[in-house]
Amino acid sequence: SIDAQRLLGRIRELGGIGRDGEGRLVRLAASDADRLGRDRFVGWLREAGLEIAIDRMGNIFGVWQAPANAGHAPILVGSHIDTVIDAGIYDGCYGVLAGLEVIETLKASALVPSRPLAVAAFTNEEGVRYSPDMMGSLVHAGGVGIDEALAAVGTDGSVLGEELARIGYAGDEEPGFLKPHVYLELHIEQGPVLEREGVPIGAVENLQGISWQRITIDGVANHAGTTPMSMRNDAGHAAARVVTFLHDRAKASNTPTVATVGTMRFEPNAINVIPSRAVFTVDLRDPFEHRLQAEEAALAAFLENLAADGGVAISVERLARFEPVIFDISIVELIEAAAKKRGYASKRMTSGAGHDAQMMARLAPAAMIFVPSAGGISHNPREHTADAELVAGANILLDIVAQLADQ
Amino acid sequence: SIDAQRLLGRIRELGGIGRDGEGRLVRLAASDADRLGRDRFVGWLREAGLEIAIDRMGNIFGVWQAPANAGHAPILVGSHIDTVIDAGIYDGCYGVLAGLEVIETLKASALVPSRPLAVAAFTNEEGVRYSPDMMGSLVHAGGVGIDEALAAVGTDGSVLGEELARIGYAGDEEPGFLKPHVYLELHIEQGPVLEREGVPIGAVENLQGISWQRITIDGVANHAGTTPMSMRNDAGHAAARVVTFLHDRAKASNTPTVATVGTMRFEPNAINVIPSRAVFTVDLRDPFEHRLQAEEAALAAFLENLAADGGVAISVERLARFEPVIFDISIVELIEAAAKKRGYASKRMTSGAGHDAQMMARLAPAAMIFVPSAGGISHNPREHTADAELVAGANILLDIVAQLADQ
Ligand SMILES: NC(=O)NCCC(=O)O
Ligand SMILES: NC(=O)NCCC(=O)O
User: Fold this and answer.
1) CB of B292 within 8 Å of any CB in chain A?
2) Who among A190, A250, A319 is closest to B226 (CB)?
3) For testing the chain B interface, which of A196, A207, A212, A273 should be mutated: the one with the most B CBs within 10 Å?
4) Could you tell me if the CB of B126 is within 6 A of ligand 2?
5) A20, A131, A188, A226: best mutation site toward chain B, by most B Cβ within 10 Å?
């Protein structure tokens, strides 16, 4: 079994790195805080005696390779260590540190694996600073070119490539240089299902599609006191109509479709001025591609009507679009079997969140293991998973990696 | 008649001061840009040979006093030179510069007025950086204490008193030191009425009540992909419901009530995080106090229901509250008579915007003159009034001041 104290200690230590003035965990991709987190992770890779490789995308790999298995495609375990704003400490970091823990455990055992073992921390999984999310693994999987990715402009106007160079994580390796035999990712569920059902292990068999758009509504700024209601072209009101449309539609449907408006900005944003502009993002998700397309079409039709009768101009920019993914069934079955062997119940489930595994599934057989999230809360400092559940998940990962590395 | 070229030239010159990096006119109260505008205005007062007085509130007064009329209460013409964000050049500045123009014109004539003539530029009329609006005239009229006003914290976290000291406009005079005999204010309408009716002069007989509130909605941050619609406490969606409620209610009513949500902020404001908090402002106005109260009550009831069924906590902060004002009927009649004498049609009307006259009416008989706003547009760089209309308004002001100063 893994060294539970070492794993839990590292999760907490990494979770303490990158706190802002108010004590909030904010380790956005390629920021100064991210540099500190990366430095700590690389230090642990070095202490574990792994070979360290960093690609041009800033993705960090730690590889344990023995003379006997050199040249074989590795078993790769990965996730990310960037965070959202005011984040919890488990999202991403748990999977990366558990990957390292599993390799250290196996390295210290008698086993000589038939394949190299590797752990990856992918750049900008969260997609908060730069779109799209899962960008590092997307580039690794060849889904977008490295030059296009490095040119991404952040919400703060920064350029990803420049920021990676600035923090010292623009590496030399070409993205995709490491071709995994299998890709595994251990992650907190970030949703309420496992906790509600009292099941400690999720065998993730699919991952829903994600559609991200940025919508800009242009109206006419005017005086809040003198402009009759009938003569307004209020961009803020039009934006509010989109928010309620999306929310009410998704809530009323009997599908698992989710719709979120997470960001909103008014211009000029003054108390006595009718907003001339509203800019906001839409996050739509559904496990089925045809339904995701139907939701996108419904939004487009609503925006068209709104522009027609609201006296506003609307433009839409696509920030990310990923189809649903179905994971490798044989690995899903391995997860179920490993859980059973350790005496844990498991449940096949859908991932509501996007993950690097979604991209890596393009390159190699892939699947994910979930552990419960207390109250289903994530992307929130209250994100929590019990120590015993974290350790259980890491031990299942250990068993599967050991089994795959022994074949 | 006044010197039209001098007046128009000054309006344009002042409108060129305080442009931001994008060329937008942003001369927020007590900012560096405001200092530049004030310096220019004070320079003109000096050139005109007026006595300059600045009070602790930063209100600037230029006074023409002759030995013959010393000690008498002055005829005061005033308005403001602070602006909103991305403003037009007429709002406030027109009235201040026309006041100066009228005094210069009378000073150059044979008239020896029976009372001193004074022009005032009041601090922070717009209320964009510090609440409430009309703050300088409110303090002058004794409606709020100077210490409370100077302690006002701005949208940028600044403190008004410190900012006034920093820009060199924390004067020595006690607020209210100058007690006017009559207060007059010339202003662009900022609304569509005069243009629509083809009338060049508005004789403003009343001014609607203003209610400003800041509303904070607290929900729960959670993951946009994993959190079912039924389990969300989405502060952004709750805020959007308030925006549509207010807008739709005011639009559907057959009263002149107006409702505006001009500012909006989400937290943490990330694309894949359900907003934990939304903070926004509400601007409600109506010419009748009982109706303004009814609108406030309807909003409060809506918020109560929203908190009950939306799973969010709502707190409300009052930023400004002014009852409707009825101006002095004898001055309104003077305006009508002066317009008629110069051959202009005039119209009695309600002011939709708040103005310093609203505060000064507590101290002295007061009224306002309006000139048309093209397209009814204000608080917008497209704010425009034709030169001939600006000159007509200033000449009406000249005639009334001359008449009052001759009594
Ligand atoms: N796991 C996770 O939170 N990924 C971020 C991308 C997403 O929004 O799903
Ligand atoms: N005149 C004017 O725009 N005043 C600002 C205060 C208000 O919002 O009415």
Assistant:
1) no
2) A190
3) A273
4) yes
5) A226
Among the listed residues A265, A273, A271, A221, the one whose alpha carbon sits nearest the alpha carbon of residue B131: A271
Please answer yes or no on whether B133 and A272 come within 8 Å at the CB atom: yes
Residue A353 has a CB neighbour count (10 Å cut-off) of: 27
For residues B269 and B293, give the distance between their C-alpha atoms in angstroms, rounded to a whole number.
33
Q: Which structure tokens are listed for B359?
A: 């505060």
- Tell how strand B209-218 and strand B277-286 pair up: antiparallel
Query: How does pLDDT run along chain A (407 residues), one tens digit per residue?
Result: 999 999 999 999 999 999 998 999 999 999 999 999 999 999 999 999 999 999 999 999 999 999 999 989 999 999 999 999 999 999 999 999 999 999 999 999 988 899 999 999 999 999 999 999 999 999 999 999 999 999 999 999 999 999 999 999 999 999 999 999 999 999 999 999 999 999 999 999 999 999 999 999 999 999 999 999 999 999 999 999 999 999 999 999 999 999 999 999 999 999 999 999 999 999 999 999 999 999 999 999 999 999 998 799 999 999 999 999 999 999 999 999 999 999 999 999 999 999 999 999 999 999 999 999 999 999 999 999 999 999 999 999 999 999 998 87
Query: Beta strand B75-80 with B182-188: parallel, antiparallel or unpaired?
Result: parallel
Write out residues 90-109 of A within 8 Å (CB-CB) of B: none
**Residue A50 corresponds to which tokens in the numbers above?**
């792994």
CA of B353 to the centre of ligand 2 (A): 5
The CB of B91 under 6 Å from ligand 2? The reply is yes
Contacts of residue B321, defined as CB under 8 A and 6 or more positions apart, other chains included, come to B132, B210, B211, B212
Q: Is the pTM of this model over 0.85?
A: yes
